[in-house]
């Protein structure tokens, strides 16, 4: 099995991809531990601040020491330089807010999962033709469930994950899965600024467990 397929399977089996950024290294690592304890085995850290690369490097170190099953992805990749930096740092997968052809050309031949954000059929076609197999629908709240339902039959070989606008409720999660997504990305709805500020890692863990249980129940009902 390719590394791309293996990472894809982990995210799809999990059904949710938590994503977050915090400038504080300790907070970053404690959130990672909380997500791992909840049962998460793939997480996206967003490259949105000056501390992102050093924090991510430390995350890889802690992962190697404490959580061998955890896959660490990096988000908000906008150019090849960033992709190279995080590749050297040990990122398992890469996510962009939009499709960057040069990043696809750099990562896919190296058997690294690249999931670009797309919001039009044209962008999805460009990504598919570049070898992308896992599409991030972004922003999910602007596109909506109807968009996913409308396009899924046109792209039978692609997997989709909305990010933005997915709530932690059963109703929200179920509606996206019924529309045809393979997983949902969850940022501030799951790892909120308030919880990070309060360093309330127990609530982050508990909320994540609830989301995983909702997704597992939906999958069991569909089997």
TrEMBL record:
<protein>
    <submittedName>
        <fullName>Bifunctional 4-hydroxy-2-oxoglutarate aldolase/2-dehydro-3-deoxy-phosphogluconate aldolase</fullName>
    </submittedName>
</protein>
<keyword id="KW-0614">Plasmid</keyword>
<dbReference type="InterPro" id="IPR013785">
    <property type="entry name" value="Aldolase_TIM"/>
</dbReference>
<keyword id="KW-0456">Lyase</keyword>
<comment type="pathway">
    <text>Carbohydrate acid metabolism.</text>
</comment>
<keyword id="KW-0119">Carbohydrate metabolism</keyword>
<dbReference type="Pfam" id="PF01081">
    <property type="entry name" value="Aldolase"/>
</dbReference>
<dbReference type="InterPro" id="IPR000887">
    <property type="entry name" value="Aldlse_KDPG_KHG"/>
</dbReference>
<comment type="similarity">
    <text>Belongs to the KHG/KDPG aldolase family.</text>
</comment>
<comment type="subunit">
    <text>Homotrimer.</text>
</comment>
<dbReference type="GO" id="GO:0016829">
    <property type="term" value="F:lyase activity"/>
</dbReference>
């Amino acid at each position: 099995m390719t590394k791309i397929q293996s990472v894809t399977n982990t995210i799809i089996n999990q059904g949710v991809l938590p994503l977050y950024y915090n400038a504080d290294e300790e907070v970053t690592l404690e959130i990672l531990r909380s997500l791992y304890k909840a049962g998460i085995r793939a997480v996206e850290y967003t490259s949105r601040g000056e501390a992102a690369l050093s924090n991510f490097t430390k995350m890889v170190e802690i992962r190697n020491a404490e959580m061998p099953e955890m896959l660490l992805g990096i988000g908000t990749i906008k150019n090849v330089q960033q992709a190279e930096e995080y590749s050297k740092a040990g990122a398992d997968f890469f996510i962009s807010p939009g499709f960057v052809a040069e990043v696809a050309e750099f990562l896919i031949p190296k058997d690294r999962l690249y999931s670009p954000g797309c919001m039009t059929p044209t962008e999805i076609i460009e990504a598919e033709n570049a070898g992308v197999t896992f599409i991030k629908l972004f922003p999910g709240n602007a596109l909506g469930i109807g968009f996913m339902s409308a396009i899924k039959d046109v792209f039978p070989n692609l997997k989709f994950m909305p990010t933005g606008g997915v709530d932690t409720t059963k109703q929200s999660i179920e509606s996206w899965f019924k529309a045809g997504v393979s997983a949902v990305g969850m940022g501030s709805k799951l790892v909120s600024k308030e919880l990070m500020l309060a360093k309330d890692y127990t609530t982050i863990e508990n909320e994540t467990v609830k989301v995983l249980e909702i997704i597992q129940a939906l999958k069991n009902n569909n089997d």
